[in-house]
Each structure stands twice: as C-alpha cells, then as structure tokens.
Automatic annotation (TrEMBL):
The lineage of its organism: Bacteria, Pseudomonadati, Pseudomonadota, Alphaproteobacteria, Parvularculales. It is a multi-pass membrane protein. PANTHER family: SODIUM/HYDROGEN EXCHANGER, SODIUM_HYDROGEN EXCHANGER 7. This is Sodium:proton antiporter. Signal peptide: none annotated.
Amino acid sequence: MWGVVFGLAAVLTLAVLLLPVARRSNIPYTVLLAVAGIALGFAAQHLGVGAVEAAHAPVEHGGAHGGGPIWMQIAEAIGGLRITSDVILFLFLPALVFESAMSLDLRKLMADMRSILFLAVVGVLISTAIVGLSIWAISGMALVLCLLLGAILSATDPVAVIALFKDLNAPKRLTVLVEGESLFNDATAIVISSIFIAMLAEGTSPDVAASALDFLVVFLGGVAVGVVVARPAIWLMRAFRRDTMIILTLTVTLPFVAFVAAEHFLHVSGVMAVVAAGLTIGSIGRRMIPPQVFVEVEHAWHQLGFWATSLIFMLVGLAIPRMLGPHVLDYVDDIVIVVVAATAARAFILYVLLPLLDRFGAQQKVSLGYQTIMFWGGLRGAVSLALALIVLETQAIPTEGRAFVGVLVTSYVLFTLLFQATTIHAVMRVFGLDKLSPADQALRDRSVASALNSVSAELDRFAEFHDFDEAERAAALKRFETAAEEAQRKSAAGDLSPDDWVRTGLAMALAQERQMYLTRFGEGFTTTTQLQDALARLDDIVDELKDGPFNWREAALKGVAYRKRFRMALEAQRNFGITRPLATLLSRRLGVLEFIRQVLREQKEKGIGEIEALLPLNARERFQQYFDERFNIVSQNAEALAVQYPDYAAALHRRDLALAGLRLEEDAYDRLLDQSIIGPEIHGDLVKRLESAGASEGRLPPLKLKLNTADLVARVPFFDELDKGRQKRIARLLKTRLFAPGDRIITRGEIGDEMFFIADGAVRVMLDDREVTLGTGDFFGEIALITDQPRNADVEALGFSTLLALKRRDFARFVKRHPDLRDKIRKIAAERVNGGVAIDL
C-alpha cells in the first residue's frame, strides 16, 4: 500500500514541477505530462519494473514492492502504478467533465447547440464509418472491430481538449464550441463503442435499427438522470446556501453519484448524466447561493481539476509503453492509414458538412478560423485510451484484435498530443485568434490609461503624505504617466466609431448590472426567485441586442415585458375568474421591478462613472441617455404597479429598509471583529441573531387584487347614485377583467359582444383621425351593442386597468331593469356618434 501512496505523491509532485516548465517553454502542459509519463514508463520497462500482463491491474493495486535499494523501491512504486478503464471512467472522467460543464455558459452553449450536436452525434457516426471502412479495406480485420476502432478515434477527448484550451486563452465562443463538442461527442463515442464491444464479445452481427434505438435511449437517458440527480443537490444547496463546506461537498459527490447511477444502475450514459448535472448546477445552482460562496466552490474545483488532469496524463503516459507493446513497428502501415483517415474524416465534417448547416440557416455561422482550430484542436487522449483498455480487458475478443486496437489507438493519441497540440498556437496565430478583437484592444488600452492615471494620482498623494524627496517622487510618477500617455495614444488611434463605443459601454453596464444582482443576492437583499427573474430579464436584453439591428429602446422594453405565464394567468382571470396565480405573478413582478430599479439607481450613482471614464467624449452623452432611458422604463413600470397596489408596494419598501438595516448592523459587527474589539464567539452569536431576524423580516403579505365586482361597482361614479341593493343586482350581471399596460381590449372591425365600465385605470381609444383617453368612471363599447355594427376603433390599456364587462346577452336585461342608466348610456352614445367623436364601440 505504501508504494501506491508514494507513487501517486511522486507523480503528482513531478507533474506540478512541470507546470513552470510548460509556461516558459510555451508547450502545452498536458503534452509535457504525457511525455514525462511515457519516459517514466519506458524507464520502468528498461529496469524491469512493474511488468504486467495485457489485462492491467487497477491503479490502486500497484506492483509488488519488496526490499532492495531505496532507488529501486522508488522506481517500483512509480513504475508499478497501473491504470484501468474503470479508474479513468469512474474516477477521473466524472470530475473533469463536471468541472468543465459547471463552468460553461449554458446560454452560449444553447446558441451553438445545433452545431455541437451535429458534430457530437452525426459527425462521430460519419467519422466512425470513414475510419472503420478505411482500415477494414487494408487490414483484413473484422468489420465490427474496425468500426469499433473508428468509434474510439472519432470523438475528441474532453480531458485533453479542455486542458489545452485552458492554456490557449482562446475566444469565448470558440472555447464553448470545442469544449461543448468534446463533452457531448465523448458520450456518443462511449455508447457506440460499448455497442460494438458487446457485438464482438457475443459474436452477434450489427443491427442498425436496434443500435440506433439503444443509442437514443442511452444518450437521452443519461441527460434525464443528470437533471434528476442534480435537483435534490440544488434544493440542499439552497437550504445551506451560506455554508461553503456543505455546498462544496455536495458538488464533489454529485458527479460521481450521477455517473454511477446512470452507468451502473440504469445502464445509460454516465458522461451525459455528469454533463447534464454540471450544466444544471452551473446555470441554476449558482443562482441559489451567494456569489462569494460559489466563487470559493469554483476555486476548489479548479484545484481538483488540476490535480485530476495532472494525475491522469501522467498515469496514461505510464501506460502507453505497455499498450504499444514490442511489435508496434508491425502496424506502421495501419497507423498511417488511421492517421490519414481520421484526419480526413474530421476535415470533411468541419469544412464540408458544417458549412451546409450554415447555408440552410440551421446554425450560427462558424468562421474558417474557428473551423480550423476545431479541426486541429480535436485531440484524443484519456477517454480514447480508456476505451482501448476496455478492449484489452475483454478476454472474449481475440488477442490479435485486442493488440490491433491497443496499438492503433495509442499511436493516434500520441499523434494528436505530440503533433497537433504542440502546433495549435501557430495555427491560432495564422488566423489572428491569439489576439484581442479591435473592440477589446481599444477597451484594454483605455482601461490601462485610466488605471495608470489613477495610480499616478494615488502615488502622488502617497509621496506627498510621507514627505518623499521631490526628485524621487517625480521619477516614480514619470513611469506611470508615460505609460498612461502611450495607452491613451493607442486607444485614440483605434478604428472604433462612437456607435461602437456606445455599444461597448452598454455591454459593460449590463455585465456590471448582472454582478450587482448577484452581490445584492449574496447580501440577502432579494430572494432566489427575484434574482432568477431579474437575470432572465437581463438576458432578454442581451439577446435582443445580439440577434437583431441595434435598437436600445426595444431591448430595454424586453427587460420589462410580460412573461407567457403572466399572460396565461391574465387569461385565467378574465375567462374563469381564477385570481391566485395572477396575484402571485403580480407580486413577483412588482418585487423584481423594484429590485431592478434599486440596482440601476445604485449603479447610476456608483458604477456608471467608471464605465463613462473609459469611453471617449463623443460617446459618453449618448451612453448616459441610453442608460437613463432604461432606468426610466423600469421606473415607469414599477410605479404603475405600485400605484395600482399601494399596500403591497409599501410592504416591499418596509421589508427592504429592514433588510438594509440588518445588513448595515452585520457590517458593523464585522468591523468590530476585524479590529479585535469583539471575539469570534460574540460575533457568531450576534450574526446568528441577525439571520433569525432576517428570515422573519423577509416575509411579505400576499398581494390582494381587489377584484370583487360588488366593491368595484360601488367605486364607479356611473353607479354611485344607486342604492346598495341596485348596485349588488348590477354586480351580478358584470364580470371583472384586469388588463395590463398595452393590452388590446377592443380591435377595429370585430363584432362587439360586450361593453366595459372602467372601475380603475385608463384606456386609449385610437380612431382614424385622433386618440381619446378614457379614465375611471367612463364606459365604452356600448354602440356596438346598440347598433349591431362592427367596432371601428382600437382600444388598449394605458396602465393596469380594472374593467367591468357587460355581455350582450345581459345588456337588454340591464337597460330594461335600470331605465335611468339606460338613458345615461343612450345620451352619451348619441353625443359620441353625433358629436363627431364616433367612438363606434
């Protein structure tokens, strides 16, 4: 046992020491790890250490570590380490896949999902056929074995690709495309390979229909398992959202639970389960916990990912000499065919088939530079070797076939790692992908100039305060001032127009707004539901700006638009009198709009100035106008609801004030702790009391819609002269309808079936030559009931408006029972028709 522990510690130590070498030599870290592992493997073979059979023992078993010189025992400890397919698939792969999936931006991933799924599914199948048939034509091996080889070699490896692109600092979209493809096609390759291995072991012939069905079940089943397993974890994270240790532990156990549940118990794709779980935690989980806690979790996962990457590439390198075996030169012709066929298949998919999707409008355009990086950066690594190890460990497959797969897979993995990975930097330079975009470069230069000017001012105050020598002070300042002037000169020489700068400033403002949402959530100023709604509305603005021509007002209006669920709740109230869903959604809308308004006001006071300082003078005024326009739109929508429901708005304000007071009180206790005025015990007791108080202060009363028809009738001036009995009888004929701002109430040309009394709010009547505004106490729509003519005007709600609707079938009874009201209606209708206003409603 000591040999395994010492061997792993020695390998990890060596791996860490290679990191600065990789940085200085500009050689990918993973390549150095693999080379070091291979060197150790050949050295172990030369020394006769750790000789094993083709079916390797697991890494935890190690070799026989007996006595002898210390150096020999150390060599045996390292050379005796073994890695199997189960160790790669069940230990290393879930951790590395989960780390990558959790850090991926789900919205960016979904934007390119068609391309990614095409490459991950269709691309892998096509590549499997091309590689398999090519090697079958010249090798004389069984077709199923050759197709198995093609499947193993057709999927880019997430472990190798993700590790490489972390070092490259590639553009964000390119990273999403490459990492997304590697995560999804890895699952495809494992599923297809498993089907072919089962055929070889059982001696069955290929069944295309059954295999396709198996693939769909395994692939989609893995996704379902990942989402289902992640949900309880998210619930627990929400319950313990301030406890970093609990949340970190949940995220560490989740990928392994998801993988084992899918792969072992349910026999579906474990990789897809981990991918789905990671994306769920990254997109939903991060909105459930304070941002500072999630940052700590991400840092911990980066460390775990680094250790896993270091160990797996070293251990795989150790295994490569054994997998190549002594007769590798006998397979030179086959190796050449595999390299040519796999490379040609990848080129055909990326340069021929992928552009066809773009031509038919089925995906976002992928540039030639991106295609080339995806082509050359499609590395193979640990997963390919793990699948080859499964073949080596399957005794039902003939020895010749196992050796054939082991040698060819290992050789192609070495080709991609030693040749493609080491030249990817040069390929990126050819297409200029190693540089910042013009917009980013201009922003970088202005950021440097602004920062250096601030540093100069602060340094000058520091030198003056401490009474430094004038000459020393001037010399120190000159360096920063010169650098600031140079950065300013570069930014001025850029080719960005004022419009480009305005868009850049707005993008920065939206990113800053997003971070302020998360910060206030972490401080306890909003709920999880409000945070998710606010972030979704912010994403709507970003999408609107990205997908169409620049129209800031339309984008800002998207941020306050009514959701589909709200529209459904409105229809439920209007048609069936169901009010609870609408009341819930109205309270959420008022809460989130008030939250957004507070953030924008705070941003206007504290954050926008820093962004404006980075913009040229000819862009600042318009940027400020756009920001003010968004603030006004949010404020108007929030105020419209607050006026309609003042009691709930007042309760919101009381809650926000109480939470702000608790937060300030906690800050005061933190300062006392930092100054050692109080100890941790007292501080902990005080914070615990504040958390209890915060839970009670955060509760809000339910929003009351006030849609009781009898009460509304009593409030309408048209009915105010009637006694209570007549008001109640009239209320039985009327139905309450609630309309949101901008809702169309009546459409020109339709056959009128009801008239409306305005109980609260205002509407706009749009005629051919003018617009008329009607308010509380007015009515409209009566002429269509009197004359049976189609409506000749459009009517829409100006604000949240509560209307009382009188159906045509009840109109006759209404005017018959209440002749005084009938006369009022006829008089006003006659004035409208004969007076030229002609509200033919």
